[in-house]
Each structure stands twice: as structure tokens, then as C-alpha cells.
Specification:
Chain lengths: ~270, ~325
């Protein structure tokens, strides 16, 4: 069903990574279509984060190939991945508390105007563009001059995602974007994920909140001890089944093997 | 402070309202509280002494506090990155003595001034290198600098103060008046204006604040944070050097003992103005008010015929009370994290 010849946005094949005696990733594959939201789940230590780091260039795999839009790539640093338009959302790591909303969105690439050859911030343009960007993504923030420290956890997460989305990525990786958020805020972040994917961005969502997966994902890939064990379209599965797959009763469900055969391995 | 707590995704938040002067005052609580202190101190001394609120005395205050204002402006950048520069008093002493020595040796005064600024920048760059690239805490690097640089100044002079020829044009930097205003005050005004613009209106100022708040985020945004960090120490070194030149010119001599404890006055002024020692939060206006408050207290106590030894007691008390009020009264403006 997946290997019908159309171009994948991302195609990772046979990725392996070993840290000392531990085989963190063992012949893992991952496919992602344009505009698709893929939920990547698994227990702690299953290799989700390592796999996402391989795709974002932070970890170099021992073997395996990565193709983006049909072209083979090899990332040796996050900058390489960014150049290939793969962005990772680093939650709080990417925000400066005492800088305002617009300043955070434009950190490192502020609009400038030159007076006597010296660079000054073009605050009006920056705030106008921020307002436009927030409206486009449906992020509700009253004032772009608010400092980020005065925002709620969900708003902060939205700014972090909005910042990553503003680099015009083709793939956006989010690691636990909804952890520790209030209910209404989770909804807002999930809406934002939908808005981003509706604009053609492929999203990889790593989360332990399984109910979130069923709200935004098109497909779920389950990892267990460094291997991918199952892949489901969201309509074909249930929370109970996903839980079983995560905790490792992986071969009890026959459909898991069937799906894996036709889905993950080309 | 419900202004900011409306959730994302909710229909346009009803709890938010357009910011009023009151919100502005709360958000800039530290500046407002030091401004109140400054006004109170000025009013008290105006009532207690007849000579405080006279033009000559006020001009005298800004003339005397020019070195403090200049170095405090640069220190605001340093402290906002989360660092500190304890060596400014020693750099001031070294440049004051070296400029006197250089003038005695017959060097032309413009060369002396430029040379001192370059020396200050070089000292700042060296300390900044250890802080930004070698990751040694700023407190330790500049504490070592404080000791070494003062030692060099003492070694050069043997502990004596070195006179500057009063006929030299050099003394005009500290003594001359221009358009009815003392030249040191004008120099301080220019430095403060540049510092204000750089801090609030340039990408550099934005990165300085960002480095203090979350250096990793700024680094990931593609900014060379190590160079930026090094550069703020270059600024404070240059500021301390210019303060040394102004002091030597005003006093007509360079003493290796000048500027003892100067770094503490500077840090007091910056902290009093509301800049956070933890970094990420700084204001040039607050620093100016903080420095002027420190200067006015010293001046007013003398005019009121009180013991000059009361100055450190009053200054210290005001620092504690101002920051305590800041914590208490204006706590609501930002979420404590």
C-alpha cells in the first residue's frame, strides 16, 4: 500500500546504530509522505529519539540510507539536516524567556534597517511579520511584545513550533510537544500540528500521549528495543492495540506482522 | 496578572486588555522603583541643604560621576549576559597611571588616549577569551584580573602618584567646559546614548539579552555567542580605560591607588537599576538612575555636613531596600519561575 512508486518525502532504510554493547537501532526503516503526520511511539529506550536524531543530523548512524524527496543524503551535522529542510522542535531549548514573542520567532535573523551603515532592529517590520505568522498558524497571542516568560506552557510550545515552521521546513520533528500541558493547550498544539501539515509539511510526532496520536496522526509506527515492530494506519487500530505493541506483546497480533511486511519493508 | 494567561486556541482572549500605563509600570517595575528612590533622595537633599539644588552643584555631580556612568553602561551589557567584570577598578587605575607616565615621556595626548582605549580593549579581549572560549567563570577570570592589573599599576609607579603637566591639553578631557556643561558629563552622555541604542535597538543588544536568558537558544539560532560574550568584556575594558583617562585628566595625576572599590560602585549602580545578576534582564535607563542615585547620596551627605563615612552605609541600605521593594511591589509583573 505504501510502496506504490510515489515519491516519499523521507525514506530511511536499514538504519542501525550501536552504542557500545547496546544496539540502539537495528535495521530500522521509516517512510514519510508529503503532508503526512506520523506518530512514532515506543517505550523508553525503544530508539525513537535516536531515530529522530539521525534524521535531524544530531546522530550519525553506523549504517543505513536516508533519502529525502528521492535523493540520497547523508547528514554529518544538524546544519546539514537544516539545509535539507528538516527541522526539529527543541521545546524550551529554543526560547529566550526575557525576549518578546517577535524577538524569539526572529532570533538570529531579525529584520534590519541600516542607519549610517550600522545595523538596527526593524521592530515594526518584525512585529508585523510576527502577527501575520501567528495568524496564519492560528496561534492566539494577544501581544507580540509580551515576553515569553509571561506565556503559558502551550503558548511557549506554539512559539517554538511556529519558529521551526517559519524556516519553511519540509519535515518537522517534534519530541513530546504536548508533555506537561493543560487540556485546552494540548488541543491548541494539536491544532497547530494540523495547520502545519495542511501546508504540506511532513510531521514526525514522538509522544507518550497515545490519545494525541489518534487526533492528529495519519499513521503510527511502533518501535521496540531498537526495531520497528509495527505500523498502522490510524483508522485500522485502537489504543489497546498500540499499547500492546509498545509493551512488547508484539507477535500476538497477526496483523502486526502483515502490516509490517507490506508497509515498512519495501 | 491575568493579562497573559489566556490559553492558545481559545477564541480571542477576553482576559487580555490593551496595556495601560499601569501595566507598563509593573513590567518595568525595577526602573520605576529606582526612579522613585532617585526622586526621593533628591527631594530630601533639596529640603535639607540649600546648596544641593543649584546648577553648579548638579553639574558637579554629573562631572564627578562621569566615570561611574560610563563604566556602568558597559557593565550593564556584561551583567545582562550573566557575567561580571570585577577588574574595571584596576583597569581604571592602570590606564590612569599609564596615561600620566606616557604624557611625562612626551607622547602626544591623542595618541595616549587612543593607546589607553586600545589597552582597555586588549585587556577585555584577553579576559573575554578565557570566559567565552575557555569557559572559566567570569567571576574568577576578572577577580584574577583585578589583582594582576592593579599589581602592574603599582609596579610601574612604585606606589607613587604621577603628575600630569597642568598645561597639557590632556587635562581638558577632565576639566574643560563646553556650552556650559563639563566635558566629562558630555562624554558620559554620548556613551550612554550609544549604549541605550545598542542595547535596545540593535541585534547585538538583543543577543546580549538572549545570551543571558538562554545562551543555547541563541547559539542554535546561528549566532556566534562566544564572540558576543568576548565582545562585552572588550566594551567594559574600553569603558574602564576611558574612565581612567577622564579621572587622570580631572585630577591632574595618575595614581595606582585610584579606583579602589570602583567595581563595587559600578555593580551597585547596575543592580540598583534593575539589571539581574543572573542575566537576561537589563536596562540602561535603570543603570543611569542607579549610578546617579549613588552619586547624589555621596554628594548630598557631604553638603548636609554629615560624616562622609555614612555614604557606604546609606548606599548599601538603599541597595537592599530598593531590591527588596522591587521583589515585593512588582512581583506580579513577571511569573516567578
Amino acid at each position: 500500500m505504501m510502496s506504490d512508486g510515489e515519491t516519499y518525502r523521507v525514506r530511511m532504510t536499514g538504519i542501525s546504530k550501536r552504542y557500545g554493547p547496546i544496539q540502539t537501532l537495528d535495521d530500522v526503516s521509516l517512510n514519510l509522505k508529503p503532508g503526512e503526520v506520523l506518530g512514532l511511539v515506543g517505550d523508553n529506550g525503544a530508539g525513537k529519539s535516536t531515530l529522530s536524531k539521525v534524521l535531524s543530523g544530531a546522530v550519525i548512524p553506523d549504517s543505513g540510507t536516508i533519502e529525502i524527496d528521492g535523493k540520497a543524503v547523508s547528514f554529518s551535522s544538524p546544519a546539514d539536516a537544516r539545509a535539507a529542510r528538516v527541522e526539529m522542535v527543541y521545546q524550551d531549548l529554543s526560547l529566550c524567556d526575557t525576549v518578546d514573542v517577535a524577538g524569539n520567532l526572529f532570533l538570529g535573523r531579525e529584520p534590519r534597517r541600516h542607519v549610517l551603515g550600522l545595523p538596527f532592529l526593524d521592530n515594526r517590520r518584525m512585529h508585523d511579520q510576527t502577527r501575520e505568522m501567528l495568524d496564519r498558524l492560528g496561534i492566539v497571542i494577544a501581544d507580540t511584545r509580551l515576553k515569553v516568560e509571561n506565556l503559558s506552557g502551550g503558548q511557549r510550545q506554539s512559539i517554538a513550533i511556529g519558529r521551526a515552521a517559519s524556516f519553511d521546513p519540509s519535515v518537522l520533528i517534534m519530541d513530546e510537544p504536548t508533555a506537561a500541558l493543560a487540556v485546552a493547550e494540548v488541543e491548541a498544539v494539536l491544532d497547530l500540528i494540523r495547520a502545519v501539515s495542511a501546508r504540506g509539511v511532513s510531521v514526525i510526532l514522538i509522544t507518550h500521549r497515545l490519545q494525541d496520536l489518534f487526533l492528529v496522526c495519519d499513521r503510527i509506527q511502533v518501535m521496540y528495543e531498537g526495531r520497528n515492530v509495527a505500523e498502522r494506519r490510524i483508522g485500522d487500530t485502537s489504543i489497546e492495540e498500540v499499547v500492546n505493541l509498545i509493551v512488547g506483546r508484539k507477535f500476538t497480533a497477526r496483523s502486526a506482522r502483515a502490516s509490517r511486511d507490506e508497509g515498512v519493508q519495501p | 496578572m491575568n493579562v497573559t494567561s489566556a490559553g492558545v486556541g481559545a477564541s480571542p482572549p477576553k482576559r487580555a486588555h490593551n496595556s495601560t500605563w499601569k501595566d507598563g509600570a509593573l513590567a518595568n517595575g525595577s526602573v520605576v522603583s529606582i526612579a522613585l528612590f532617585f526622586i526621593v533622595v533628591c527631594v530630601v537633599f533639596s529640603l535639607v541643604t540649600g546648596s544641593f539644588l543649584t546648577t553648579p552643584n548638579l553639574l558637579n555631580i554629573v562631572r564627578q560621576s562621569a566615570p561611574l556612568l560610563i563604566v556602568a553602561a558597559a557593565m550593564t551589557f556584561v551583567i545582562t549576559t550573566g557575567g561580571i567584570d570585577l577588574s574595571v577598578g584596576s583597569v581604571l587605575a592602570l590606564t590612569a597611571t599609564l596615561s600620566a607616565v606616557a604624557l611625562q615621556a612626551g607622547l602626544p595626548w591623542p595618541l595616549v588616549v587612543v593607546g589607553m582605549l586600545a589597552l582597555g580593549a586588549a585587556i577585555g579581549a584577553l579576559q573575554g577569551f578565557f570566559i567565552a572560549y575557555e569557559r572559566i567563570p567570569a567571576f574568577i577570570v576578572t577577580l584574577a584580573g583585578l589583582s594582576v592589573i592593579r599589581g602592574v599599576a603599582l609596579l610601574i609607579t612604585g606606589g607613587y602618584s604621577i603628575p600630569v603637566e597642568p598645561t597639557s591639553f590632556f587635562v581638558n578631557i577632565g576639566r574643560a567646559w563646553f556650552l556650559g556643561v563639563p566635558v566629562p558629563a558630555l562624554l558620559a552622555l554620548v556613551v550612554l546614548a550609544i549604549a541605550y541604542l545598542a542595547f535596545n535597538q540593535t541585534p547585538f543588544g538583543r543577543y546580549v539579552t538572549g545570551i543571558g536568558a538562554n545562551a543555547e537558544a541563541v547559539r542554535r539560532a546561528g549566532v556566534d555567542t562566544r564572540f558576543m560574550t568576548l565582545f562585552v568584556y572588550v566594551l567594559s575594558g574600553m569603558a574602564a580605560a576611558s574612565a581612567g583617562v577622564i579621572l587622570a585628566a580631572r585630577l591632574g595625576s595618575g595614581s595606582s591607588n585610584s579606583g579602589q572599590g570602583f567595581e563595587l560602585d559600578v555593580i551597585a549602580a547596575v543592580v540598583l537599576g534593575g539589571t539581574s545578576l543572573f542575566g537576561g534582564r537589563g536596562t540602561i535607563i535603570g543603570t543611569v538612575l542607579g549610578a546617579l542615585t549613588v552619586a547624589v547620596i555621596g554628594n548630598g551627605l557631604i553638603l548636609a555636613h554629615m560624616s562622609p563615612f555614612l555614604t557606604p552605609i546609606v548606599t548599601g541600605t538603599i541597595i537592599l531596600v530598593a531590591i527588596w521593594l522591587n521583589f515585593r511591589l512588582f512581583k506580579g509583573a513577571t511569573r516567578s519561575r
